[in-house]
Amino acid sequence: xxxxxxxxxxxxxxxxxxxxxxxxxxxxxxxxxxxxxxxxxxxxxxxxxxxxxxxxxxxxxxxxxxxxxxxxxxxxxxxxxxxxxxxxxxxxxxxxxxxxxxxxxxxxxxxxxxxxxxxxxxxxxxxxxxxxxxxxxxxxxxxxxxxxxxxxxxxxxxxxxxxxxxxxxxxxxxxxxxxxxxxxxxxxxxxxxxxxxxxxxxxxxxxx
Length: 208
Fold this sequence. Notes:
208 residues; 10 helices
C-alpha cells in the first residue's frame, strides 16, 4: 500500500526538488504540495494524508503549530518536520507537540525517506545529528514521577495505542473512569496530550 503524503515548504526550489524525489518512490503518493503553514493545514484537512512532511519554519503557521492542531483535532495524520537548525530544545518541543519525525535539511534524501517510512509504520525518527543532544534535555524535562499501579496500567495500555473503550474493557472500568485517569496523568506529568503521556512512558524506560 502506498503512503499518502502532503509536503509543505515555503522555499519553492526545495519544495519542488523534494516533491520530485518523493514522487519517484514507488510506495509514496504525493497528494499535496504547498508553500505555507495555513495551506498545509488546509491540505491535511482536505486529503487526510498518512504523513505530512512540513518545514519547521513557515509563514502562516509553523510545523509545530500544525502538529498541535492535528493532535487537538484527533486526526490520524502523522507529522515529520524538516529543519536546517540543530537545536535540541526545538526538537524536544516538537516531540512534546506530537511530532513523530524530525529530519535535518542537511541530511541525505535517503534519511528523509527512512524517516517517512518509519513514521508511516507507527514509529518515530530523528536525525542522528540531533538525537544525541536531546538526552540531557529529556532528563531535565522529565523528573521522577510516582504513579499508582492503576495509573501505570493505563499508561501501558495507552502506549499500545488503545482507546478509552478498549482500556475500560480490559481493566473492567468505565470509559469515563479511563478518561479521568488520562486527565490526571496529564496533570501529574505536566503534559498536554496523550501523545506526550506515551512519549513520557517511552522515555521512562523500565520505570513502568
